[in-house]
Amino acid sequence: MRQNWPERMWIVRHGQSQGNVARDEADEAGLHEIGIDVRDVDVPLSELGFRQAEATGRWFAQLPDGERPDIILSSPYVRARQTAKAICEAGALRGGPQKPIVDERLREREFGIFDRLTTAGTRARFPEEAEHRAMLGKFYHRPPGGESWADVILRLRSMLNTINLHYNDKRVLVVCHQVVVLCLRYILEELEEGEILAIDKQADILNCGICVYDFEPDTEGLCAPKLTLWNHGAPLEAEGAPKTAEPDAVVGSR
Q1: Taking CA 58 as the corner, what is the angle to CA 102 and CA 44, rounded to the nearest 5 degrees?
Q2: Do the beta carbons of residue 108 and residue 75 sit within 8 Å?
Q3: 47-71 per-position pLDDT tens digit
Q4: What is the pTM of this model?
């Protein structure tokens, strides 16, 4: 056994959502609010997002049976569950289609009073809080009623403990959100605040972009996560589905 680690773990951001599209439109128009009338948890995939998810599922399904994921874990948010379901239905898991396991600890970061606001909207409506965020930095800033990146990391440490307990030596596929992908990388690679924020600044995580960690013991039998693929969009290119990397639908989601 790999010290209770999985054999391999894929981390996949959900496909493009209607919230991603609405945010782009709001930013381009200089609006303060994002024009979407459902809770963030209920925001579905866009038509393109479904195509991205299906293409990603077929990419996994083309792997040899002994290399495909054994289990798929998903955020409870609709856009993530739809992505996970499409991946399952494409035959991505070993043994054929199965049902994703939903875990609320993989949910999107909660944005509190910043929910549905663009960056311009936050500065206009909550100037003191926006100034506080600029001073503290987004890693530690917690909007009233919401979460900081550090809060997300706390629940993800618990999530990884569950994976290690129940799925050691298995191949695990996780479907989640942009900030969650980055926070998992922070934990697995034991990064510092500045290091993960620098990675975040380089580029947005692709919708259905794939991150891969392998967990092979070294000569002393010790095991550490090894990043072998980062923000990989090849499945989308192979299927002709356009790559997108919009920030998530509310301010501060990067």
Answers
A1: 45
A2: yes
A3: 999 999 999 999 999 999 899 999 9
A4: 0.91
